[in-house]
Amino acid sequence: MKREFYHKIGEIEDDIKNYYRYLHRYPELSGREYKTQAWILDQLRKWEVECRPCADTGVYAVIRTGRPGHTIALRADMDALPVTEHTGLPWESRRKGVMHACGHDAHMAILLGCIRILQGYRDSLCGNVVFIFQPSEEQQGGAERMIKEGALEHPSPEFAAALHVWPQEAGSITCMSGPVMAQPDAFRIEIRGKGGHGAAPHLCRNPIPALASLVNAIGNITADVVSPQEMAVVNVCRIQCGEKYNVVSETGCLEGTIRTYDNAVREKIIRRLKRLTVSTAEAWEMEGTYSMSAGYPATINDRAAASWAARILQKKLRGIKVFSEGEASMLGEDFSYFGKYCPSLFLRLGCWKECGDKQYPLHNSCFEIDESVLAEGVEVFCVLASVFTERGFGA
Ligand SMILES: [Zn+2]
Ligand SMILES: [Zn+2]
Q1: Rounded distance, CA 117 to CA 8, Å?
Q2: Catalytic site positions
Q3: Is the pLDDT of residue 117 over 60?
Q4: What are 327-373's pLDDT values in tens digits?
């Protein structure tokens, strides 16, 4: 791509920051991104970019150059979290109890910046660039709905990329191949005993000791059924039983999460959880019920796409450190659905502020990004789009 394209990013850097600050100030929860959607559509129409609403609160946009070439899709997620912000930033959330604590505001600002640059240079582009602003990543799965509503048709992308701001040094991008985000399942075990007076436990069946022994047993599952070479997490995160100190509750339950990359490992864990539910309940002469809801599939980066992108980014972006390896995360991501249609790549953009006491993890009420990474994210997307649409993976 032309040299001037890099200068252009510097020219609009303040605008990109303003997009980010605006989106940060007005976060919306999963499935309710109505104002975010309207605002994005307004910007795109102002820049005369072909766009339409998709999946209720999402936005689909495309630049069709009319010249032969390849098609790439770039995706940003849109939703915020039910977290009360404590950053104290001037652009702190104006919506009580809702915060962009996962950086999806940054992802949208970066994708908008990229669209603005590419639209300005569309005469020197080839092929097509599809832009996906996807709602409901944190829950309900907006990615799958965008795909069902045609986001990957006419034109069909041959490659899909997304990035996530990541708690690592600013000015770095991780472009790893293979496992990157795990499958996040939720499970629930309900124990039904017999309620009664706390002073007469022998006449009751108190679910609490049964739940306690389940928690201990569950803590050993990964060591017991998963090889140390495999990645897995089984974690109890919620227990609920009883209302009063002297009343034995009839029922109690615990809930937790299973994180895996491999279906065989996942099946082994589920089988053990089901067995433990039945055998523990039986040992305590109670009834146990196991239920679960399956999470998004694991996100696996395409090996060829990852090494292609690492090479291209290293060559074109001299100021940014490109890591071609990284640790697979046990967090979940519904970007995985795009990977079922074409080679896909989920990049991590280092976003930590230099000052150590501002380095908080994703989903933390103090989570903050170094704003310099916004322009870097735009550069990354612009480079991938301009090179891929011209030469595909052959570059
Ligand atoms: Zn998140
Ligand atoms: Zn996220």
Answers
A1: 7
A2: 290, 371
A3: yes
A4: 999 999 999 999 999 999 999 999 988 776 778 999 999 999 999 99
Which ligand is in closest contact with the Cα of 78? 2
SS3 content of the chain, % helix, strand, coil (to 5): 40, 25, 35
Residue linked to tokens 């201990």:
216
Cβ-based neighbour number of residue 92 at 10 Å: 13
Q: How far apart are CA 134 and CA 147, in angstroms?
A: 10
- Residue 197 CA, distance from chain mean position: 47
Q: Using CA atoms, how far apart are residues 113 and 93, in angstroms rounded to an integer? A: 22
SS (H, E, C) 315-381: HHCCCCEEECCCCCCCCCCHHHHHHHCCCEEEEEEEEECCCHHHCCCCCCCCCCCCCHHHHHHHHHH
What residues does the ion ligand 1 have nearby, CB within 5 Å?
102
Distance of CA 286 from the midpoint of ligand 1 (Å): 37
Is residue 5 over pLDDT 80? no
Q: Which residue bears the tokens 């034995």?
A: 248
289-302 pLDDT per residue, tens: 999 999 999 999 99
What digits encode the pLDDT tens for the residues 233-270?
999 999 999 999 999 999 999 999 999 999 999 999 99
Output the CA–CA distances (angstroms, integers) from residue 73 to 115, 163, 287, in the order listed: 12, 12, 50
Around ion ligand 2, residues with a beta carbon closer than 5 Å are: 102
Q: Which domains does the chain have, with CATH numbers?
A: 4-181+298-394 (3.40.630.10), 183-293 (3.30.70.360)
Whether the Cβ atoms of residue 246 and residue 321 lie closer than 8 Å to each other: no
Rounded to the nearest whole angstrom, what is the distance from the C-alpha of residue 334 to the centroid of ligand 2? 10
